[in-house]
Amino acid sequence: MVPFSFGNHALMALPEGAVFWPARGALLVADLHLEKASWFASKGQLLPPYDSMATLAALEVLVRRTKAREIWCLGDSFHDVAGCDRLPVAAQETLRGLTMETRWTWITGNHDPAILDRCGGEVVEEALVDGLVLRHEADPREARSELSGHFHPKLRVRVRGRQVARRCFVATATKLVLPAFGSLTGGLDVDHPALRAAVGREGQALIPVEDRLLRFPLAA
């Protein structure tokens, strides 16, 4: 975990694409997209049905490692509103266990605006927590410090002649966009016009590596 400051709070960036907030014992993740594979299967595109369990297993590891007391999911936690109903039994048991032992909050997103059976936890549209705004999609009009998801940011760089893509955080003075945590999620280039319109032109791509945070200014 790599410490950094945002909105006058000491936070920690995790290489897995999550944020830990030590003062609250809070773990923040975005865009789990649980049951994405089964949604595609219902449309005739068959994918391996292991994405939800892989995502929840990775999340459980972080909960244990950080000893998180609070979990904040910043929207699109399920790929559609009925996703929780389709979770395999083992995945449901894992998720219900986590929501029972922590203060778990689902923030709704464009894929799951009305979570039917949320497998525990509280559902809100957005939240203001100790001065930080938590929502699914960054609002360019928001002047307060804001954490969000939605865009699945990825940074593409050339290393030794090869192009490498890494999921990353995107940060400005008042906005922090988390990468997608889900195991079956794509990514949007950090210089995509939609992302730039949401956060402005003064952003940086952040990649936590061991004990430091690599910073890449976004193209002007």
List keywords for this structure.
seven-stranded mixed β-sheet, alpha/beta
Summarize the structure in words.
- It is a single chain.
- With 220 residues, the chain is an alpha/beta fold.
- Helices cover 21% and strands 33% of the residues.
- It is built from five helices and 17 strands.
- The protein has a seven-stranded mixed beta sheet with strand order 1-2-3-4-5-6-7, covered by helices on one side.
- A hairpin with a 2-residue loop joins strand 16 and strand 17.
- Helix 2 runs parallel beside helix 4.
- The longest helix is centred in the first third of the chain and has 16 residues, at 51-66.
- It is globular, with a radius of gyration of 17 Å.
- The relative contact order is 0.17.
Helix-strand sequence:
EEEEHHEHHEEEEEEEEEEHEE
Largest sheet: 7 strands, mixed
Mean pLDDT: 89
Sheet with the most strands: spatial strand order: 1-2-3-4-5-6-7
Head-to-tail CA distance between termini: 29 Å
The fraction of residues in strands falls at 25-35%
What Rg is obtained from the alpha carbons, in whole angstroms? 17 Å
Number of separate strands: 17
DSSP helical segment count? 5
Structural class: alpha/beta
Classify the helix fraction into a percent range: 10-25%
What is the molecular shape?
globular
Residue windows where pLDDT falls under 50 for at least 5 positions: none
